[in-house]
Every structure is written in structure tokens, then in C-alpha cells.
Here is the input.
Amino acid sequence: MSMKLVHISDTHLGYFAYRKLNPDGLNQREADCYNAFSRAIDLALQIKPDVVLHAGDLFDTVRPTNRAMAFAAEQTLRLSEEGIPTVIISGNHSTPRMKETGSPLRFLNCFEDVHAVFDRPRTIDLPEARIHAIPQCPSPVQLKEALSSVNDHLAKDRYNILMLHVGVVGLQAFKTGEFNEQIVSQDELDPALDYIALGHYHQCVEVTPNAWYAGSTERFGFGEVGQDKGILEVDLDRHEKKFHPLPVRDMLDLTPIECGDLTPGQITQAIVDAIPSDTEDKIVRLRLRSIPRHVYRSIDQDAVRSSFANATHFELVPDILEEGEMDQVQRGIGALTEEFSMYVDERVEKDGERVRLKRLGLRYLEGDEA
Here is the structure.
């Protein structure tokens, strides 16, 4: 008995961030996610696995755009036409709080050999494996019930594979702190299962010998700087796992500038000097440490902008020096979108929450309903 699978996760199709557009007029980061997913399917078709597993968050929202849904359909159809079974579970990003809203995954079940699991746990039987697919559950109690019921449905003559979209807590913590995140203990991951395909955590990592995160197919925050993105090829017969990296947009988190007693002119020059020459097409962040509000207002923003003109996106994040117990940040008013972005940068600590809030807010402010 042999079994080879491809494990993909967290593609977040429809993701939208920053203001840069590609030559076709599409948000550049949205296009990046489409490109990454297309390349992931290219790899899957080259590997020719017995099954492709997508461990959640195919889409970035519960109401993806027509463009995102059409792209997902095109790529999934490529697998279907090659006769490669595909199992997709819902994740926290693509699961509505009310069932009446409906799942954006439902339409994928129209394709042959595609199993989209979103409303309840299901078992999918393949010639060499039984897939125990647990989608995002409405509550932790229901998640635990679903996990405990897996043992009642184990196949004796095939590989048993579990799919989950969760954070895992044990000797290490693999979680993001996002809204609607569900957590399981490492002890709840049954070592008797042949493989556990995990989604939600964006880095490819081994949790236990039989449980792995494939990671996301793109970078979605500065907490993911330097992380390789790609897909996992798993050979259950040989007990081998191979990570296939994808070419994705680079992110740079530059060494912060300690402003101290520097003048606005000195800080401006320090910013210009800190920006490397190879920022073209990259996403870059630079923090300003301990900068008084009146000094920040006096920085030469035009000089700063011109120095990163070739970057896909540049974030200048001030850590305003507090005066007394409360220090309201005051600046000259710029574009509303810029003001909103800087406000979120200053007040939201977690990368995942900050990126998501900025994306939603900018989409609203810019009136993008496409």
C-alpha cells in the first residue's frame, strides 16, 4: 500500500493590502496571493499525488469577491481534470458566524473529485486512505467532540489522515491570536494517525512526528519575515516529507532607529541612510523608537517617500515618546488612508490583527467593493 499527498494551507485568496496596483490595475498583494496559489497547483500537478489536502482558509473572507471565487474554481478545476482528488476544509477566515450566511466553499463540490468540507465533519474514503476532515467548528466543545469521534471511524485497511484548522498548544505554541481562532492541546493529536494535516499557523513546521503545518503560500505580516512559503509533499509509505518552496514577495523589517535627541533633519537622513538599495518590489517596514510627537511631525516626508519609491510598500512606524501618563499622538493631517494606517500601526500590537484591520479599513475607505 502506498500513499502520496500534497498538503497546502492558508492561501487566503482575495487578500487585499496596501495601495500598490499591478499593471492590470489589480491590488498587487491580491495578485501575489493568486500567483502563489497557481504555482502551488503547478507543483501539485508535477508531483501527481494520490490526493491534495487544503487545510483551511482557501479564501481570506467569508464573502470573497467574484474574482477570488473564479480564480479558486479555475485552479481547483485543474486538479479535477487530472483526476486528482482534492479535500478542502474551512478555516476561521472563511467560516461565517451564522450558518444562514452560507459557505464560500460550497460551489467547489460541483467539481468531480473535489470535497469541500465546511458544515460538519466528514470522512472521505479513497482507495488507499480515509480522510477525517474536520472543518472550523462553531465552538471548542464541538471541536473536541469531533476529535473524539475520529477514533470511532478509523479505517483498518487504509491510511487514516486527519485535517484540522487550529492552533496547537504544547511544549511550543502554534497560534496567531486571531478572532475565532480555535486551539487544541498537542496531547489531542493522536499519534496513531498516519498523518495530521494542519492549517492556520503560517509557517511550515513539525508539531509532532505525524502532525505538520504546511504554512501559508504567501507572507501576510512582518511576523513572517524570512519565512519560506510553499507546500508539503508527504509520502506515507516511506515516511518522507519534502517542502517545496514558492517564490513569494520579499519583506524587510529594518533595524529600528533610536531617535533620542536627534533633530528632524538628522532623523530624516537616518531614515534615508537606513533604506537599502535593493528594496525594489519589496515590502519594507522601519520603526522609529522614542520619537516625540512634534519631532515626528517635522520629518521631511517627501524625502522619505522618494527614497523608497520602487518598493511595493513602505511603512514608517513611529513609537511616539509619551509625555506623562497620557500622550495623544498629534500630527499634520495627511491622506485619510495614511492617517488610518498609522493609527492602526501605533495601537495594534499583533501583526495578524494589525494587517487584517488595516486591510478591512483601507478597503472601506477606498470604496473597493469589487
In short: Confidence is low (pLDDT under 50) at residues 324-334. The chain is about 25% helix and 25% strand. The radius of gyration is 22 Å. The domain at 4-245 is CATH 3.60.21.10 (Purple Acid Phosphatase; chain A, domain 2).
